[in-house]
Amino acid sequence: MRPVYMIRRRPSPNTSNQLRNRLLFHFVVLVICGNENKSRETPLMARGTMVPTLLVLLLAIFCATTVVHSKEWIVGRQNGWFFSISNWGDDKPIKVGDVLVFKYKAIAHNVVQVSEEDYNACTVSRPSPTYRSGNDHIKVTSSGRFFFICYVKTPLHCENGMKIAITVQ
Ligand SMILES: [Cu+2]
């Protein structure tokens, strides 16, 4: 960046006060309004838009960071939501804000969020959130233990390990 002021002559003593006042005045103007020279060099970046632009950039970075922090977990192994996966979640550091993704053949299975008792008994004893799309995205909004089973009965899939208990940190 070019220096704002170029003093070519050594000022004489009687003009030094005047010069100092001019410098002070211009310094104050620059602090309040931004760098005049710079705004002339970049006409698109009008004087006074620098601060709002920086704020928007910081906000965008903040939002991007927030998005990066939440993670999608595809529940199960290579077949997704399937039999014999009940220990899949044991070592997963699933956090509040993460998304559980249940992928399966919608005509063959479903996902029911149940209580711990129903999970252990492989039953649905009360109205429970039920997902059937075959590509269910369930966002975790609080910490604790969450229980899901497949409640399709030909034979009962839950009893063949199509059930999962997930601990959210
Ligand atoms: Cu099933």
UniProtKB/TrEMBL annotation:
TM annotation in the entry: 49-68
Name of the protein: Phytocyanin domain-containing protein
Keyword Transmembrane set for record: yes
GO CC, alphabetical: plasma membrane
Keywords: Disulfide bond, Glycoprotein, Membrane, Transmembrane, Transmembrane helix
CDD domains in alphabetical order: Phytocyanin
Xref: Pfam families: Cu_bind_like
